[in-house]
Design a protein that fits this description.
globular, 9 helices, about 70% helix, mainly alpha, disordered C terminus, single chain
């Protein structure tokens, strides 16, 4: 009969905290650089320098496509449903880098497609809320309304409004609210459909 393994697992809280801080520094640096320079303009060496670590430390976390996916997940986790305009403003530079990367990196194409399917599904949930409350304008189906919002509420439109027109959070929030309401409910006074 063999004796049970009674060795204790070594846990070094300082090392765990340091590793967590390093991962956070790398992810934050990557997010800033992807947002500022896009996918093509961001290098692992630049991420390492921005994070204050070595390129080897960055590669230990992820390669460049993996780093972008980490940034996208991180940005998604930080998004809150209470401030859609704020979320769009924070995320659109990373979304732009993600789409750019998907065009250049075959390994990221399916991830971009999944991301877009998830974005469409989230918008469909919003449309369903209007439909269930009988607030969709006459003749508008859930599918058509979802496709319309999916095509209009993108990083592209937010980038145009922010970068070309100088809009801030308040203007984007008003635009988004008006766009959604007009698209789904129609002009003021339009008769809503039943659930």
């Amino acid at each position: 009969m063999t004796a049970p393994n009674t060795t204790r697992k070594y846990v070094a809280p300082r090392r765990v905290a340091q590793a967590t801080a390093t991962r956070e520094a790398i992810a934050a640096a990557a997010e800033r650089l992807f947002a500022r320079y896009g996918y093509a303009g961001t290098t692992i060496a630049a991420v390492a320098e921005e994070a204050g670590v070595t390129p080897k430390s960055v590669y230990a976390l992820a390669d460049k496509p993996g780093l972008l996916l980490l940034v996208v997940r991180r940005a998604g986790a930080a998004a809150g449903p209470e401030d859609t305009a704020g979320t769009l403003l924070r995320r659109y530079p990373v979304e732009r880098a993600f789409e750019e990367a998907a065009l250049a990196e075959p390994a990221l194409r399916e991830a971009w497609r999944r991301h877009e399917r998830a974005r469409r599904a989230a918008l469909k949930g919003l449309v369903r809320t209007f439909a269930d409350a009988g607030r969709l304008r006459p003749g508008l189906t859930v599918g058509r309304a979802t496709d319309t919002l999916w095509a209009l509420v993108t990083w592209h439109s937010v980038a145009l409004l922010v970068e070309q027109r100088g809009w801030g959070r308040a203007k984007v929030a008003t635009w988004l609210d008006q766009l959604i309401r007009h698209t789904l409910e129609g002009p003021a006074g339009a008769a809503p459909t039943g659930p």
